[in-house]
Structure formats: structure tokens, C-alpha cells
Design a protein that fits this description.
With 368 residues, this protein is mainly β. It has 1 helix and 25 strands. Among the domains are: 52 residues, no CATH class; 84 residues, no CATH class. A 4-stranded antiparallel beta sheet has the order 18-21-24-23, with no helix packed on it. It has a 4-stranded antiparallel beta sheet with strand order 19-20-25-22, with no helix packed on it. Strands 9-10-11 form a 3-stranded antiparallel beta sheet, with no helix packed on it.
């Protein structure tokens, strides 16, 4: 009977200890093989104020933590004992030596100040790689952009790439929400509200066209040549000098010719020069028997005739057409024989007179 009592008591005691040990495992603690009650070989010991969490100390050994703090101020710890919570101290200047990723964006509300920029990048610019690796120091590279393989190996401070499906502006500079002063479209068209360049060379791409929206355009098809066009590139009206009224001159296009006009195109104006040299296709002569030694331009020149007596020479001016006809001055350089203009059309002049053998006849004409 005595043996039965001790057996039942041992079972009761073992069950109570096991239940207590199992229940304590829901609390922070640890398993140990020393100091267990009732002769148990292992048991669970919960952490408490009198039994704090052991902490491994750098350099070896263990100890206990009575309070938690932050020496460099980069963390905010509250409370400093018991169950503590540590969070980043945003009022403390920190330095990150590794790449940081911000999935929700960055909002910087700092104010500018003397010798201070709210957003400042003070590293060094990478140069000397290839067109793929020498990426800009500051690069806007939205998702969907194709990798660039032609970056300058000399380095770039500011770079922008855009997806091929993007149809907006790469940049648009405005003042206080108003008119755009400078914009660059996805196709590279640069629109400038006002351009003032001082003491800096200004270079344009060789094949570029400078266009005023809905108006004239200028391009350079070859070195030393400027081409002026209307917006449709089908012609040009005039160049005005100094203003747009009748108080200023202009050069106007008229078919294949130029006219000196008033800037408002209300009338023609004068053109002063030290002399006029006839160029273009050389005139041709018919009549006066045999004609030789033809020299000159379209509207002026000389020729020799073998006619003895009456000479009627028809001058066909070199590919030039007058609105109505021509008036000419004509001379016989060899003898004192007289010649005159006896008729004219828009493209020809008839010179009539008396000549001797091999007389040289010279003339110059003006259209009217």
C-alpha cells in the first residue's frame, strides 16, 4: 500500500511540472539542463526582471542588459528598459554607404539657404568608360527606356532617357505655371520662348532647320549658304530691313528674280550700286550677214559684222524676259556710223544702222 501511494504522488508531481513547463513555452525564455526542480533533467525557464535575457558581449562572454540607448543619435529608442522599440531618428544627419531604394518616392521640403542646396550631389563624375558604361552623373531613366549605348565617354552631368512609347516632353521649363520658355519634345524638337546668347558660340546641327511656328524657316544646305523658306518650304516672300512699314526697304522674290521694294510691298524702291556687270547666258545675234566675236552677258556686250551698208541685227537676250520690252544704248566702235533700237519684244531687241566691213557694235539694255 505504501509503494502505491508513492507511485501515485510521483505521477501527480511529474504531470504538474510538465504542464507548467509546457505552458511557460508560450512566454519568452529558454531551455536549460541545470537547476531543474524535482530532479528533472531539463526544463523551460521564462525571462523576467530577475532573470533577464543573456547578451553576448563583443570580445567574448555574456551579460545582461539593464537599459537600451543609442550613442550616435541615429536611432530613437523608447522605452529604454523592458520591451523597447528602436526607430530611425529623422532629426539626426545620417550617412548611408550602401545603395538605398525608395519605392514610395522622395518628398524634399527643405528650404534653400546660403551655401546650401536642398538636393545636392557632391560625388565625382565618371568618365573614360564606353558609350554604355559612362552613364550621366544624374540620370532620369523611367521604366521601359531602352539602354543607351552612345553616352559621351567624356562624361555627362545630366541625362534623360524615355520609353519609345512616350509622346510627351523630355523637358518643359515654365515660370510660375505660365508660358513655356524652353521645351524639348520626345522627337528632339526644341522650342524656345526667348533666346538671348551672350559671348558664347552658338552651334546648330548641320541638317537642322530653324522654324518660327507657322511662319518662316531657315536652313543651311551647304557651307556658306543660307536658305530662306516659308513654313511649307515652298517659297519665300521677302527680307525686310529695319521694319515692316513703307519707311523701310526690302528685297522681294519675283519668280526667279529679286526686286527692291518697300517693306510693306506697297511700291518698288531704289537700289544704289557702283556699277552693274551683265552676267548670265550670253546674248545671240541674227542678221547683218556674218556676225562674229560675240562677247558679253545677257543684256550687254559687243559683236563684229561683215555687212557693208544697212545692218539690221536682232539681239536675243540671254534667257531673260522683261515685263514689256527693252531700251538700249548702242554704238559703232569702229566708225562714226549710227545705230538705234528700231524694235523690241519682251526677249529681243532689233538694232538698225549702217556698218562697214568688220565694224564692232556694242550695246547695253535695260528692261521695262
Amino acid at each position: 500500500m505504501k509503494e502505491l501511494f508513492f507511485a501515485l504522488f510521483f505521477i501527480f508531481l511529474s504531470s504538474n511540472v510538465f504542464a507548467q513547463s509546457t505552458a511557460n513555452q508560450t512566454q519568452p525564455g529558454y531551455l536549460t539542463t541545470s537547476g531543474c526542480p524535482n530532479g528533472l533533467t531539463s526544463c523551460f525557464v521564462p525571462y523576467s526582471a530577475s532573470n533577464p535575457l543573456p547578451v553576448t558581449i563583443e570580445g567574448g562572454g555574456t551579460g545582461t542588459v539593464s537599459s537600451v540607448g543609442n550613442m550616435d543619435g541615429s536611432l530613437t529608442v523608447s522605452p529604454t528598459t523592458g520591451d523597447v522599440i528602436a526607430s530611425i531618428n529623422y532629426g539626426n544627419a545620417g550617412t548611408w554607404s550602401a545603395l538605398q531604394t525608395f519605392g514610395a518616392g522622395i518628398l524634399d521640403s527643405a528650404n534653400g539657404a546660403a551655401s546650401f542646396s536642398p538636393f545636392m550631389m557632391t560625388g565625382t563624375v565618371f568618365t573614360g568608360g564606353n558609350g554604355t558604361t559612362t552613364v550621366p552623373y544624374f540620370l532620369l531613366n523611367p521604366s521601359g527606356s531602352t539602354a543607351v549605348t552612345t553616352w559621351s565617354t567624356l562624361g555627362t552631368l545630366f541625362g534623360v532617357t524615355a520609353p519609345s512609347t512616350f509622346t510627351g516632353f523630355l523637358m518643359d521649363v515654365r515660370n510660375s505655371g505660365g508660358t513655356s520658355y524652353l521645351s524639348i519634345s520626345n522627337g528632339g524638337t526644341t522650342t524656345v520662348g526667348a533666346l538671348n546668347i551672350t559671348a558664347v558660340p552658338f552651334s546648330l546641327a548641320a541638317t537642322s532647320t530653324q522654324t518660327w511656328t507657322g511662319r518662316a524657316r531657315i536652313q543651311s544646305p551647304a557651307d556658306g549658304i543660307l536658305e530662306f523658306n516659308n513654313n511649307a518650304a515652298t517659297g519665300f516672300t521677302r527680307l525686310e530691313f529695319g521694319g515692316t512699314t513703307s519707311s523701310f526697304p526690302a528685297l522681294a522674290v519675283n519668280g526667279t528674280g529679286l526686286e527692291a521694294q518697300l517693306a510693306d510691298a506697297s511700291a518698288d524702291t531704289t537700289l544704289k550700286t557702283s556699277g552693274i556687270i551683265s552676267g548670265g547666258t550670253t546674248f545671240s545675234v541674227s542678221g547683218c550677214t556674218t556676225v562674229s566675236n560675240i562677247v558679253g552677258g545677257s543684256t550687254a556686250g559687243s559683236f563684229s559684222t561683215s555687212t557693208i551698208g544697212t545692218c539690221t541685227a536682232v539681239i536675243t537676250l540671254g534667257g531673260i524676259t522683261a515685263p514689256n520690252g527693252w531700251d538700249c544704248a548702242v554704238n559703232d566702235r569702229t566708225t562714226a556710223n549710227l545705230f538705234r533700237v528700231s524694235a523690241s519684244t519682251q526677249t529681243t531687241v532689233t538694232l538698225s544702222g549702217t556698218s562697214a566691213l568688220n565694224d564692232v557694235i556694242s550695246f547695253h539694255c535695260e528692261g521695262y
